[in-house]
Amino acid sequence: MPEPLLYESHCHTVLCKHATGTTAEYAERAEARGLKGIIFTCHCPLPGLGPNRTRMDPEQYEDYVALVAATREAFAGRVDVRLGLESDYYPGVEPWLEKLHARHPLNHVLGSVHTQVPEYRARFFHGDWFEYQKLYFQHLAEAAETGLYDTLAHPDLVKNESPADWDFARIRPHIERALDRIAATGVAMELNTSGLHKALPEINPSPAMLGLMRARGIPVVLGADAHVPERVAADYAGALRTLQGVGYTEVNFFLERKRRTVPIAEALASLK
Ligand SMILES: [Zn+2]
Ligand SMILES: [Zn+2]
């Protein structure tokens, strides 16, 4: 029997108000899929974003840390349960996140530019989808350059905003410029399988963009972005084969904010 190797590096809890299931159910699913562990990366609290409809309130952060710690204890010896965070990036949020990330030791910090969040859209969308897409990739590169994040999450998410206005060939030079900047920082990028269920049903990023990342040696972290327990490690085997298809031989995850690398062939053999 192959040993468990992989982690779920991106999943949520009920505290973000748009995920369901207990943390124990997520951990059980990780165990059933043959994973070594699971890193909870719920949506970070943010200041001044109104009623925090899709994230925990700032005063709930300690509850989140305690919830993950209790789950870790309950699953000791079965699944390695870890604390992480999915932190939004937009210009100006850096001081808040510096303080937040320092409050408790984190294992994996995802950096996300969430173009669908109303407050982000109100500030940055001015009626032209292509301009919005360009700005998204600029913000992604800026996020990498802040040094606040281990991995950039679902790094072509903006394609779901108006799928009819997504033209890869047209946006490609802007993606390449962003990837050059990201590659220079050493920050990893995510292959997120939840894109298969989004408006433009395709992994994030697309295989074409993964090829551009591969050409620059950007390390990839796999995540299902589970908001329900059933989606923990969902579509991992297909995603690993897609990575192989563009030339990757290794896949990564973060523990204690240090990148760990495993061969894709071994990762595939370890999954149930
Ligand atoms: Zn979410
Ligand atoms: Zn997420």
Describe the 3D structure.
The protein is of the alpha/beta class and 272 residues long. It is 38% helix and 15% strand. The protein is built from nine helices and ten strands. The strands form three sheets. A five-stranded parallel β-sheet has the order 4-5-6-7-8, with helices on one face. The chain has a three-stranded parallel β-sheet with strand order 1-2-3. The longest helix is centred in the middle third of the chain and has 18 residues. The structure holds zinc ion (2 copies). One zinc ion binds next to loops.
What's this model, at a glance?
This protein is an alpha/beta fold and 272 residues long. It is built from 9 helices and 10 strands. The strands form 3 sheets. The chain has a 5-stranded parallel sheet, with helices on one face. A 3-stranded parallel sheet has the order 1-2-3. Strands 9-10 form a two-stranded antiparallel sheet.
